Amino acid sequence: MGYTALLVFAGLMTIPEGLYEAGRVDGASEWRMFWSITLPLLRPVLALVLVITVTGSFQVFDTVAVTTSGGPGDASRVIQYYIFDLAFQRLEFGYAAAVSVVLFAILAVVAFVQLRLTRANESDLA
Amino acid sequence: MSVQTPVEPAAAGPARVTAAPVQKAPKDRRAGIGRVVAWATLVLIMLVTLFPFYWMLRTALSNGTQLATDPSSPLPVGFTFGAFERVLGLSTTAEAQAQGGSGAAIDFWLYLLNSLLVATLITAGQVFFGAMAAYAFARLRWPGRDAVFFVFLTALMVPPIFTQLPNFLLMRDLGLLNTYAAIVLPFFFMTPFAVFFLRQFFLSIPREVEEAAVLDGAGTVRRFFRVIAPMASGPLITLAILQYIQAWNEYFWPLLVASDRSVRVLTVGLGIFRSQTPQGTPDWAGLMAATLMAALPIVVLFAVFSRRIVDSIGFSGIK
Predict the structure, then answer these.
(1) Minimal C-alpha gap between A72 and chain B (Å)
(2) Among A60-64, B163-167, B191-195, B291-295, which stretch is predicted with the lowest mean pLDDT?
(3) B90 FRET partner, CA 20 to 30 A, in A104, B96, B254, B318?
(4) In angstroms, how far is the first alpha carbon of chain B from the final one?
């Protein structure tokens, strides 16, 4: 959380104060300014945070490996742990590698959609 | 629209100074129950965050042999600075063993120097090269730019651990094992994260500023160093802090390629210190003392530089 907060904080710093002054002169409420100034101008940074955290979440491994080893049953098994289990416990390296490639493809598609939906290639400030 | 070069931020300064009190006044008047709740929540979160550090300090100041007799005591058990002394090699082997140490010391200053050198090199390289790549992806026009950027981004989807074995073989074949170069090189040029991060910020820099620089006859290199880099000083400092912390805490890679004493970094030194105990139970007090001292430079760095991020507020250079 601290990591993401720092990223968003840096993003907030790039929004010119003048825009908020203009908003205040026009009688906009704090809430309104958040929706109409902060969020849209923070979009490129929020896209970054979105992609980084989503791909990061798919790579959770150590916490699960150390605490529950995927148990009880399959209740807390994550995809990376499944790949590890396939490769190094059941020694099905080919299958494990195939799962990794599929995971890679899925993550790439997810990231692509995220970048498109958030229009991450442009900024309203520029 | 009038455009001014970002080299003169003073022109934008006075407007902000007068604006600050105006912004504060209405907020302070609303100091009601909401504010109290907000502060209480923040204090609570801070306590939860800081408690592990307090526990490290409490353990570090304890006497190692007495620690197990009162494991839940909120205060140091048998208060002593012995743990710090034996980590720095100031106490004799007999004194150290009397307090639960192994008699082994950490060559603290050497490892500290190694860590500083490695982390500084990695950070400098990443920010410099990452910024240049990000500029190319954000502002230069060339065919297939966004497609190439996306392919570059997919490197984020490969868990870092997968790249360590090939990198190790590469370092070994280059004959670089147990050198600073081996620790630094895989991180020196750029990471997808650094490039992605900076690109998103460069996108927000007003085009007008750069167009003005073009009219004044500035080439690409000049625009990058004189316009883009100064205007993005906040994000650049943020990235530098993040990468420095990451480089500082990197454990597995330096352990793999540089476990030799002369190039050992602090994290690896700590790991070896922990494994040097003869009878199984680690010297917890000594380990915590060493960990605290290893974390201190980062805390100082963060305290100094987070101020700089705030100082670079709203550096848009445009009116």
Answers:
(1) 25
(2) A60-64
(3) B254
(4) 7
Residues 6+ apart with CB under 8 A from B267: B115, B248, B249, B250, B251, B254, B255, B294
Yes or no: domain B108-265 corresponds to CATH 1.10.3720.10? yes
> Does A124 map to a domain?
no
pLDDT of amino acid B199: 92
Domain that holds residue A43: 2-117
Q: How many domains does chain A have?
A: 1
Phi/psi-derived region of residue A70, left when phi > 0, alpha when psi is between -120 and 50, beta in every other case: left
CATH of residue A103's domain is: 1.10.3720.10
Q: The whole model's pTM is what?
A: 0.80
Of B146, B157, B242, the CB nearest to A55: B157
Q: What angle do CA A34, A40, A42 make, to 5 degrees?
A: 90
Residue B146's Cβ-count burial label (10 Å; 0-12, 13-18, 19+) is exposed
Q: Which residues of A touch B319 (CB under 8 A)?
A: 18
Q: Look at residues B256, B280, B262 and name the one whose alpha carbon lies nearest to residue B100.
A: B280
| Range B49-74 average pLDDT | 80
SS3 B102: coil
DSSP 8-class letter at B71: T
Provide the token pair at B144. Answer: 């297939």
Whether B235 and chain A come into contact, CB under 8 Å, resolves to yes
pLDDT digits (tens, 9 = 90+) for B80-119: 777 777 777 766 666 666 666 666 667 788 888 999 999 9
Provide the residue type at B23 as one letter: Q
Q: Which residue in the block uniquely carries the two structure tokens 């994260």? A: B193
Q: Could you tell me which residues come within 8 angstroms of residue B171 by beta carbon, excluding any fewer than 6 positions away?
A: B177, B182, B185, B257
Per-residue DSSP letter, B281: S
- Shortest distance, CA A52 to any CA of chain B (angstroms): 8
Residue B139 in tokens = 């502002």
Q: How far apart are CA B8 and CA B14, in angstroms?
A: 12
Say if residues B96 and B290 touch (Cβ distance below 8 Å): no
